[in-house]
Amino acid sequence: MTKVLEETAKECIRWAVGSFDNLKMSTGLNVSGLVLVDLAAKAGYQGELLFVDTGYHFPETIKVFSELDLRYPEISFIKLSAEIKTEELYLSDPEKCCQINKVDPLDEYLKRTGTDALLNARTRASSPSRRDLQMVEAGQICRINPLTLWSLEDLDRYLAENDIPPHPLYELGFTSMGCWPCTKATKPGDDPRSGRFVGQGRLECGIWSKSS
Ligand code: SF4
């Protein structure tokens, strides 16, 4: 099964590379992100990987970003961040904190660079909020999701078969990696993203909820 998923994902990436003038890729460096970067490199993607550094990431996540930069020289690793830092806004207004520190820096960069399509690593299996995810989401910026149908087990198997180290906190139960104030470890069988935004009444940061 993984081979079929793998070939489908690579075919999707090749289609995107050949179809859009200004394609980019974005990931939060979760297990699916690590798989996507590897598949994209093998499928011939030689563009940018965008990572939004909120200033609140675990140090391990920043280290993963640096290691990927060395592992995939054909891809340009770009770190984006908010121009103005806000002090502990995640305590008083987490949605505004995400807007300022995650959504706005990515939106601003995509608009400034005239990006017309964005590869990303979302999967249906990661969260109830993603159960209806389609492989291609048309819009002003087309969202392309080559890993739509992958389960957590598929992702794990791919990393193992391709000798790709997982995020160092993954084995401790961090099945979806976000900022340290808003990310908890999950238990076996939980939705992978159930450790995100715990107690905040939401499942998404807002990056993927926009229609444009
Ligand atoms: S996940 Fe938490 S710390 Fe990170 S930007 Fe959103 S509210 Fe702020």
Task: Give an account of the 3D structure.
With 212 residues, the chain is an alpha/beta fold. It has one domain (2-169): HUPs (Rossmann fold, 3-Layer(aba) Sandwich), CATH 3.40.50.620. The protein is built from 6 helices and 6 strands, in the order H-E-H-E-H-E-H-H-E-E-E-H. Strands 3-2-1-4-6-5 form a 6-stranded mixed beta sheet, with helices on both faces. A hairpin with a 4-residue loop joins strand 5 and strand 6 (142-144). Helix 2 crosses helix 6. The longest helix has 19 residues, at 94-112. The radius of gyration is 16 Å and the shape is globular. The structure holds iron/sulfur cluster.
Compact summary:
It contains six helices and six strands; from the N terminus they run H-E-H-E-H-E-H-H-E-E-E-H. It is of the alpha/beta class and 212 residues long.
Total strand count, please? 6
Q: What is the overall shape? A: globular
Distance between the termini: 33 Å
- CATH superfamily, called what? HUPs
What order do the SSEs take from the amino end to the carboxyl end, as H and E? HEHEHEHHEEEH
Q: What's the arrangement of strands in the largest beta sheet? A: 3-2-1-4-6-5
**Low-pLDDT ranges:** none
CATH topology label: Rossmann fold
* Count of discrete alpha- or pi-helical segments spanning 4 or more residues: 6
Q: Helix fraction?
A: 25-40%
**From the coordinates shown, what is the CATH architecture?**
3-Layer(aba) Sandwich
Structural class: alpha/beta
Small molecules in complex:
iron/sulfur cluster
Largest sheet: 6 strands, mixed
Oligomer: single chain
Per CATH, the class reads Alpha Beta
